[in-house]
Design brief:
The complex is a heterodimer of chains A (361) and B (258). By secondary structure, chain A is of the alpha/beta class. Helices cover 43% and strands 19% of the residues of chain A. In chain A, helix 12 crosses helix 13. Chain B has one domain: 3-Layer(aba) Sandwich (Rossmann fold), CATH 3.40.50. The longest helix of chain B is centred in the C-terminal third of the chain and has 19 residues, at 190-208. Classes of the chains: A alpha/beta (361), B alpha/beta (258).
């Protein structure tokens, strides 16, 4: 077993990046995730593993540093919170278009606009439906504990390189700020430059040897037919993600009449709701999303054959509910409940909503 | 004398560098981009560093620079080339990294990225083509458009009171301690081309010695955007651009010389 630590989610993600053998982190401070870069600056990963940490002049610059370094075959990460992630969208679209691997962390806060520094889950649409311009998808992982903040970094890098696609860790202000016990993964060595050249010379800008064609990192293809062909290739890749990477957790769903669908901190709150409901004799289970894209639509659709209703619980005005309803496809009622704008719903509020909207309805 | 006797290897006086591809240049006839590309690639070839050089292309006329330069290249979002180059250089400090940017890209939308890469003293080369106009999008006003100069978004001439002054980005960044070599050159005559090539060589040597950021502005023409023939455009550039953007070194060995 690895080292056990008591850490904030933001610190866990930073430590996990060092241990995943990341080559660089580029970021810009923003509440509630500034601990990520602060932790890295204190830890001096340059000395521990040779990992580069740089505070950029803006989120825009940070994501473009990620673009440059990822295009050069390195393992790179950035993190931010909602307004900052909005600024990054241009770069994320370019990274997706150029098919580069990287990890992006969003510790979501309430919006719109400058909003609030309190937790929120209102960036679901931005994360799963594109965010920037053009037809592209991020692979989105949603941690629900400090442990998962740590564990998902390495998994995210693996997925990013497997698909050569940006992977988003969609957290929120609760998970980022709360402290929990976490078992830290073992330190992975960083790839050497020779290993990187050997593995990624077929696409990365690592310096053109005479023996090969030059590598070009670009999302530009002016010929519409060739751009369409590139888009079709991207869509094939997203389809493969849907076939292979759906991740979720079912808690007490075997005998359940009612299912709460949730992710991140809402899934933690829902566990208490479930306990309270079961104490009252209501058979409630939780379907916790781990990947938001790909969305577990087939699994939810199957569940809809044997339960009486779904409640989508999220700290937003109703975003994930759209995907839940598409998956349920009208078989049984599927409703939304959530506080938002930085307000966190209580387990009691969720239970009341479940009784009123689903069980009573 | 038969022509085959003349074209013998020992009579060769000029050869296109292998670091320029055979793709036909997408630039307008008379434009300075082709020359600036060629001398940059000649420097990379002459220094023997092509296997370790990574270029960053901007958005603008030279967005397709990677079609012409036969090295590994990354195409950056509009204005972001200095940040992209920073990312590459920080993870590959032994590689040679340069950006190639126009005035709209470097001085307008990318002003912040330019300023901060220069201020951090990133060990990269920035080549800045200033033709006082947005060429690719069809001749709109740039931050470097001269007072009174007509463009498609200043059709009656640039009005300083409402459109602001032409931005002397090169003088601006020369003030920053992070820049080591800052110069302004041109490529309109053979003599100017030789001087510019020398400056580019110096810039890459500075990167080799890890001394800091080298910044080369090349004042260039845009005969299409200026709606002139190439000869008139070059003459107009000498008469109008050079007085506002005077040629010569601005900072050498980390010291202001102008």
């Amino acid at each position: 077993m690895g080292e056990v630590k008591l850490m904030k989610g933001n610190e866990a993600i930073a430590e996990a990046a060092i241990r995943a053998g990341a080559d660089a982190y580029f970021g810009y401070p923003i509440t509630p995730q500034s601990e990520v870069i602060e932790y890295l600056m204190v830890e001096r990963p340059e000395d521990r593993t040779g990992m580069v940490v740089l505070q950029a002049e803006s989120e825009i610059a940070a994501i473009n540093m990620v673009y440059g370094a990822a295009g050069a075959g390195k393992k790179v990460m950035t993190s931010s919170s909602s307004p900052g992630v909005s600024l990054k969208q241009e770069g994320i679209s370019y990274i997706a278009g150029a098919e580069l691997p990287c990890v992006i962390v969003n510790v979501v806060r309430g919006g719109p606009g400058l909003g609030t520094i309190q937790p929120s889950q209102a960036d679901y649409f931005q994360s799963t439906k594109g965010g920037g311009h053009g037809d592209y998808k991020l692979l989105v992982l949603a941690p629900a504990s400090v442990q998962e903040m740590a564990d998902f970094v390495d998994q995210a890098f693996d997925l990013a390189f497997k698909y050569r696609n940006p992977v988003l860790i969609l957290s929120d202000g609760v998970i980022g700020q709360m402290m929990e016990k976490v078992v830290m993964p073992e330190q992975k060595p960083r790839l050497t430059n020779d290993e990187i050249i050997e593995r990624y010379s077929d696409w990365a800008t690592v310096g053109k040897k005479k023996s090969r064609e030059r590598n070009i990192i670009t999302s530009l293809e002016l010929d519409p037919y060739r751009q369409e062909a590139h888009n079709l290739k991207l869509q094939e890749k997203y389809k493969k993600m849907e076939e292979n990477e759906v991740r979720y957790e079912m808690i007490n769903c075997e005998d359940a009449d009612y299912i709460i669908v949730a992710y991140g901190s809402s899934a933690r709150i829902a566990q208490k709701t479930m306990d309270q409901a079961r104490a009252k004799g209501l058979k409630v289970g939780i379907f916790r999303l781990i990947t938001l894209f790909p969305f577990p639509k087939n699994e939810i659709n199957k569940l809809a054959d044997r339960v009486k209703g779904f409640l989508a619980v999220e700290m937003s005005a109703g975003q994930m509910i759209e995907d839940v309803r598409l998956a349920v496809n009208g078989k049984v009622p599927a409703e939304h409940y959530g506080r938002y704008g930085g307000v966190i719903h209580s387990p009691e509020e969720v239970l009341a909503a479940l009784e009123q909207k689903i069980i009573g309805g | 004398m038969d022509i085959k006797e003349i074209i013998k290897p020992e009579n060769l006086v000029y050869k296109k560098t292998e670091l320029m591809t055979d793709a036909p240049l997408s630039y307008c006839p008379g434009c300075g981009h082709g020359t600036a590309h060629r001398i940059t690639m000649e420097v990379v070839e002459e220094m023997g560093i092509w296997e370790d050089t990574i270029g960053v292309a901007p958005v603008g006329c030279s967005v397709l620079a990677y079609d012409f330069m036969n090295i590994d290249m990354t195409q950056a979002a509009h204005g972001r080339a200095p940040a992209v180059a920073t990312g590459i250089k920080r993870v590959w400090p032994e590689k040679y990294v340069f950006t190639y940017q126009g005035d709209g890209d470097l001085a307008a939308i990318g002003g912040n990225e330019t300023l901060h890469a220069c201020n951090r003293g990133e060990n990269i080369v920035i080549i800045f083509i200033n033709n006082g106009i947005y060429g690719m999008t069809g001749g709109q006003m740039a931050p470097t458009t001269l007072p009174g100069m007509k463009s498609s978004t200043s059709p009656y001439g640039r009005v300083i009171e409402t459109m602001g002054h032409p931005l002397k980005m090169t003088e601006l960044i020369a003030q920053l301690p992070g820049t080591y070599f800052v110069t302004r050159q041109a490529v309109h005559t053979a003599a100017a081309v030789r001087k510019t090539k020398k400056a580019i060589r110096k810039a890459f040597e500075i990167q080799k010695e890890k001394k800091g950021l080298a910044f080369i502005e090349i004042v260039s023409n845009c005969n299409s955007g200026w709606k002139m023939n190439p000869v008139d455009a070059n003459n107009w550039m000498v008469d109008n651009m050079f007085p506002y953007f005077p040629l010569g070194d601005i900072k050498v060995d980390g010291e202001l010389v102008k």
